[in-house]
Amino acid sequence: MTALFYAAAGIAVAATALAITSPQAVHALLYLVVSLLAVAAVFVSLGAPFAAAVQVIVYAGAIMVLFVFVVILLNPGRDDAARERRWQSGLAWLGPALLALVLGVEVLFALAAGPEPAAAAAAAVGPRETASTLLGPYLLGVEIASLLLLSGMLGTLHLGRRTGRGGPA
Amino acid sequence: MIPGGPPPASHALVLAALLFVLGLSALLARRNLLFMLLAIEIMLNAAGLAFVAAGAAHGQADGQVMFFFILTMAGVEVAVGLALVLRLSRALPELDADQAARLKD
Amino acid sequence: MIELAALMPAVPLLGAVLLGLAGRRMTSGAARAVGVGSAVLAALTACAAAAAFVLSPPPGGATTAVVASWWRAGDLAPAFGLRLDGLAVAMSVVVTVVGALIHLFAAEFMAGEERISRFFAWMNLFLASMLVLVLASDLVVLYLGWEGVGLCSYLLIGFWHRDAANARAARKAFLVTRIGDAAMALGLIVLFVHLGTLEIAPLLEKASAVWSPGAVPAVVAAALLLAGAAGKSAQFPLHTWLPDAMAGPTPVSALIHAATMVTAGVYLVARMAPLFLLAPPVMLAVAVAGALTLLLGAAAALAQNDIKRTLAYSTMSQVGLMFLALGVGAWAAAIAHLATHAVFKALLFLSAGAVTSSLEGHEHDLRRMGGLRGDLPLVFAAFTAGAAALAGLPLITSGFYSKEAILSGAWGAERAGAWWWAAAMLGATLTSLYAFRLVFLVFAGERRTPVARRPGAAMAVPLAVLGALALTVGLLEIPRWMGGRPLISELLSTALPAPPPHQDHPGRESLLALAAAAAALAGPAIAAILWGPGRRRERALGAPAGAGAHRWIDAAASGFGFDALYARALGRPGASLVAALRRDPVDEGIEGMARAVETIHRLLRRTQTGRLRWYAAGVAAGSALLLALVLL
User: Fold this and answer.
1) What is the pLDDT of residues A55-109, one digit of tens each?
2) Closest CA–CA distance from residue C632 to any residue of chain B (Å)
3) How far apart are the CA of A128 and the nearest CA of chain C, in angstroms?
4) Does the beta-carbon distance from B97 to C612 stay under 8 Å?
């Protein structure tokens, strides 16, 4: 399990790094899918198989498919890739990287200073346990989540509505 | 099952921090709205990973529960965000976030 | 008896309310009838009360009654209380009798006036306020009357307010007396803080018990009350408003600015006499202010060319004489002179009013008068009687007796008696001189302005009555050494402190009286030489003055430049202060806060660029900062 964790972690970091630097939207999406699948593997190694399954189905599956559809609709060409490259030239990454670095170092410090259990080995939590917690104490949260989904659907419908001037979708 | 004991949860947390930082730097560096949404996905996923890792460290299901909530939220966010991107793509064919500032006026 | 006292202010108040509410619907005759009728009724009531008081004096020389409670604030619960003692009786009789005669005079004098109901409403209100002032048993109620007469004074000076100068004169009178009123209010507060009551009789008892002579709070309170009295009575240095107050109708000048209101200060000092006795420095200040005003006013009166301004300065000067008497402790003499002065000064003013209203164009300028003796014999007789009383011609006039009492009191003062006496003598001589200057300028010589009309009965009756009174009131105050009975002093003896003990020395008294008589007789003699028939009268003071003297005459004519001095010393700094405060410095602070918020708002608005990545960077930097704070 430890080996799987480190291997998946390496893949996730590498794929993410490629995804965020790629000038081509489709390439970036594919790298991101890889990264998400790797994180699913990390979930497995941590003893959360149900979370891993959901990660694959919802994240790597549904959400990324949504992105792909949008990219198809926008249909970016060579010009767009060149522009992306141009936008990334020079010191564009310097400021964000520095700020992110500071925040990352701080988080690492916080983790190092954190309480003991964090350093302990991960304990497996099965789907049954997860389900009974989700639909037990967190039932209200589930209801709120359903409400959120509903409002998201309505919002998307509204934004995608064909306007009188002939909207895009 | 793959051999070897379970990894220390703290390492998973470090991984989550790394992914989050990568996502954040991408969010700040990229100007294309589509890539910024992608970066947000990365950051949300990193946060979910942190929850799952913490839940595993304590041997409790709450971490995974929070991950599901984050997942739901990410789905809604992507749906609305992409709808907005489609809508904006008419006014801003380049999807330049910096140019979107002129919508303020 | 006390019921009569309560009726006294109530009657004119009722008249004022009636005239104020229904005056517009009244005919001129009805308004005059109500105005005069209520004043006459008040006078009859006052006389009845006085008779009752004299015939059966109440035990202790005073009777008090609470008509109604007023308000309560902590320990201060002033009541509408009336106190009838010798002083109140004397004052109320003077106020109502003189007031009623002046009302009668005004009924004819103001006959053609459009707003006559308003005029009489205010006159009646004045009478009511003055009676409240005089009869009050509580200083708060007294202050109510005090402010009431000030208000009526303001309203009546500015009665012809369509002329801006009159409105200005009213405002000046109001503001200058207000300085004194504010000081008086402070004095009341000092008294209440230290003695816990403002009811006059207990307050005075307590003051004498608590404070030893010269105690600081007593001096402070007395000084503040003196400032109030000086403001109301036009005493130096708050005297500048009185000459301008002549802008009002002549009956107003006669009633308010000669006979009654301006003597309220004298009444106040006399009423609070025990308190003033506890403050020797203030007593000295009373005498000094009185002496200064006496001499300044007399000198200024000598140089005036306006008949009413002459009388105004004369009033100032005579009230100054009363203050001098108060300051040297001749309490009864001061009040006696107040009474006689009220009669003869009202007479002089009314006669002057009769003269000016008879002349064509309502001429006020002495230089254009003359030779009226034949045209207006009654006015001539009345005016001469008034002038003689003012001058204090011996034996036959009231002024002589009251003035002689003051001169003898001044001589008998504890300290520097001879000086006070000398000042009073000089004042008396000057007074006699300007009194007869008026007589000669107005009635002798050739006629300069034709007579347009003659006074009717409503004017003639008050002139005749007052003229008779001016000559005879003095008989009530014949000193003992002359074999008479000073009835007024006896009436006042229970209400006022005893004068400083001085040995009654008939020889010295008669010498002093002779000196006073000489001073009084010197006036007409000199005046006859300077302004008598056949003299050059182009210049007000006459030809004998040289160039250097003319400077002095001009200074005196302008009241010795106090108006200009005040304008420069107080008016201009005040104006610049107002200009500086126009943009309120306190507001600046508050507006500064608003401006600071606005500036911050503008700065913060800059951050709302609409640049998404900057927002994200801001959020990230903020979380980095917070995390750093948590970690450190």
Assistant:
1) 999 988 888 898 999 888 888 878 888 888 888 877 778 888 888 898 888 888 8
2) 20
3) 36
4) yes
Give per-residue pLDDT as tens, C492-541.
777 777 766 655 566 777 787 788 788 878 878 887 777 766 655 544 44
Give me the helices (H) in C448-582, please: 457-472, 487-492, 506-531, 547-557, 562-566, 572-581
CB contact under 8 A, A96 and C617: yes
A positions 25-44 inside 8 Å of B (CB): 25, 28-29, 32, 35-36, 39, 42-43
C395 in helix, strand or coil?
Answer: coil
CA dihedral for B23, B27, B32, B34, sign (positive or negative):
positive
Whether the predicted pLDDT of A165 surpasses 60 = no
Residue C58 in tokens: 């109440």
Q: Per the CB < 8 Å rule, is B28 touching A19?
A: no
- Residue C246 CA to residue C166 CA, distance in Å, equals 9
B and C: number of Cβ contacts within 8 A: 28
Measured CA angle at C191 (ends C189, C195), to 5 deg: 125
CA distance C452 to C455: 10
Length of chain A: 169
Q: What is the DSSP letter of C84?
A: E
The CA distance from B60 to B80, in Å, is: 32
Distance in Å, alpha carbon of B104 to nearest chain A alpha carbon: 19
- Tell me which chain A residues have a C-beta less than 8 angstroms from the C-beta of B51: none
Closest CA to A20 of C370, C622, B28, C484: B28
| Averaged confidence pLDDT in chain C | 83
Residues of C with CB under 8 A from a CB of B: 608-613, 616-617, 620
Residues near C48 by Cβ (< 8 Å), separated by ≥ 6?
A: C4
**Hey, are the CB atoms on B6 and A92 less than 8 Å from each other?**
no
Which secondary-structure segment (H or E) carries C63? strand C62-69
Tell the residue number behind the tokens 């100007």, with chain if given. Answer: B31
Question: What's the rounded Cα separation, in Å, for the pair A112 and A129?
Answer: 29
Q: For residues A104 and B50, what is the distance between their CA atoms, to the nearest angstrom?
A: 13
Beta-carbon separation of B35 and A6 below 8 A? no
What ipTM was assigned to the predicted interfaces of this complex? 0.87
CA distance C71 to C77: 6
C179-201 per-residue burial string, b: 16 or more CB within 10 A, e: under 16: bbbebbebbbebbbebbebbbbb
> What residues 603-622 of chain C have any CB closer than 8 A to a CB of chain A?
617, 620-621
CB pairs under 8 A between A and C: 22
Instruction: Read off the pTM.
Output: 0.66
DSSP codes, C177-195: HHHHHHHHHHHHHHHHHHH
Query: What's at C68, amino acid-wise?
Result: A
- The C-alpha atoms of residue C250 and residue C312 are separated, in whole angstroms, by 11
